[in-house]
Design brief:
Shape: elongated
Strand order of the largest sheet: 1-2
Largest sheet: 2 strands, antiparallel
Helix content: 25-40%
Strand content: under 5%
Distance between the termini: 49 Å
Number of helices: 5
Order of helices and strands: HHHEEHH
Radius of gyration: 25 Å
């Protein structure tokens, strides 16, 4: 290769600064419920830059688009829970949002079929011999 064919790559542009206007734009887009990827694309930054700034600003957390969303039926509090109802908990204890599933429980189990499937996992022969560190 000749020296004329070799071209130097330009250094990457420095990340944009978080001016008051850019921070306000981030707040508005966050409030609108856009994903971090979409906010980043609109603002010309990475989604990780969005996540970091949102965290530093202390903006309210939102439901993860990856996490499964549980059905939001009737709110079942501890005092309303009976032995034939699923006692799978949702939310943080000691908060107003804390509740239980409340669907019909499997006979002689504390959970409904869906939550039993999550709570009771059978260990296969292949997994019994493996150590936790493997």
């Amino acid at each position: 290769m000749s020296e004329q064919q070799i071209t130097a790559e330009a250094p990457p542009a420095p990340p944009p600064e978080w001016t008051e206007d850019r921070t306000d734009t981030l707040r508005v887009l966050w409030q609108e419920g856009l994903t971090t990827r979409e906010i980043g694309a609109r603002m010309g930054i990475t989604k990780n830059a969005v996540v970091g700034k949102v965290h530093r600003l202390g903006l309210p957390k939102r439901q993860s688009p990856i996490a499964p969303k549980e059905p939001s039926a009737e709110v079942i509090r501890l005092e309303s829970l009976s032995s034939d109802m699923c006692s799978w908990p949702f939310g943080e204890p000691r908060t107003a949002e804390f509740r239980f599933c409340g669907r019909t429980a499997v006979h002689e189990k504390p959970y409904c079929p869906e939550h039993c499937a999550r709570a009771y996992v059978r260990v296969t022969k292949d997994r019994k011999g493996q150590s936790a560190a493997a």
